[in-house]
Amino acid sequence: MSNEPLADLTQPQRDRLAFVELRVRFIGEIRRQDLVTRFGIQSAAASRDLALYKELAPGNIDYDSKGKSYVLGPKFRPVFDFPPERVLSWLTQGFGDGEPMRLKAWVASESPSRLTHPDLDVLASVTRAIHQECPLGIEYHSISSGPTERKIVPFALIDNGLRWHVRAFDRKSQEFRDFVITRIKHPVLMGDADVQPHERSDQDIQWTRIVELELVPHPDQPRPEITEMDYGMVRGSLRMKLRAATAGYILRQWSVDCSPDHSLRGYEFRLWLKDHLALYGVKNAVLAPGYRSPDPNKEEQ
Asked: Domain DNA-binding transcriptional repressor CapW winged helix-turn-helix spans what residues (predicted)?
């Protein structure tokens, strides 16, 4: 759709209509009260915004009288062109949900772009399934088994620093797993299917378990005081609490030496995990640099 009709609108109107589209596309629904709360406008003004969006983009939203909300229309076509980074920021951090603007920066800065971005239509199906707490049928492409048909119950997004994953219960393996969003094709929401109690996030031990890690300057690197400054350490250490399901990703991203004898060499290893036993039972600890299972008879999965 051409954006010409948008040119006649004020910037506050464009921001509100962009918010309508974000909510409907990625959450699956929007209520008048959502606009009232987000922008501090009156209910009558929110109703006019919804009517205006419906007029500008016929078929994008339908009114659900049962749920008393506007839901995604079957012929949805986006009006606004949102960069993936902006959408993911909005979904995960909850701010900046107006229309993206190209404004002059206050100070010069540079942030390298990711090499990969999830397809926004796929991401939208995943996030609607999370919000609606319903299963999602997908074609998933894995390196080990190629394309397979799966039914998953997603409940959270995970940024591992390189790629975006969705944490979900996998009905094929009967386990909670991470699925790379760029490897998902042809997602279909199964809104009429029930989610079983054992498929919900509170049953995911790796997700609900919180591990406490203490990171210190690598004992074999020079000038530990500079590492303490760079990482804002207090009394020579950095303490953090992470979900077990994300620990391996973060330790790899930060190049933390997780060997029990701080044996990794290289300038990238400026941090050392002081107690490697803190990762015992963490499934993705195998991703952590130098990690060795304390139980030689049991390999981490």
From this structure: 14-91
Instruction: Classify strands 175-180 and 164-170 as parallel, antiparallel or unpaired.
Output: antiparallel
Q: How confident is the model at residue 296 (pLDDT cuts 50, 70, 90)?
A: low
Amino acid occupying residue 275: D
3-state secondary structure the chain: CCCHHHHHCCHHHHHHHHHHHHHHHHHCEECHHHHHHHHCCCHHHHHHHHHHHHHHCCCCEEEECCCCEEEECCCCCCCCCCCHHHHHHHHHHCCCCCCCCCCCCCCCCCCCCCCCCCCHHHHHHHHHHHHHCCCEEEEEEECCCEEEEEEEEEEEEEECCCCEEEEEEECCCCEEEEEEHHHEEEEEECCCCCCCHHHCHHHCHHHHCEEEEEEEECCCCCCHHHHHHHCCCECCEEEEEEEHHHHHHHHHHCCEECCCCCCCCCCCCCEEECCHHHHCCCHHHHHCCCCCCCCCCCCCC
Residues 163 and 220 in one domain: no
Q: Is the pLDDT of residue 95 over 70?
A: no
C-alpha span between 94 and 58 (Å, rounded): 27
- The terminus-to-terminus CA distance of the chain in angstroms comes to 48
Give the range of the structural domain holding residue 244, as residue numbers without chain letter.
Answer: 209-287
Query: What confidence category does residue 8 fall into, taking pLDDT thresholds of 50, 70 and 90?
Result: confident
pLDDT-derived band of residue 200, with 50, 70 and 90 as boundaries? Answer: very high
The 271-273 sheet, strands edge to edge: 238-243, 210-217, 271-273, 256-257
Overall pTM > 0.90: no
Q: How far is residue 243's CA from residue 106's CA, in Å, rounded to a whole number?
A: 36
Same domain, 245 and 274: yes
Partner residues linked to 158 by β-bridges: 165
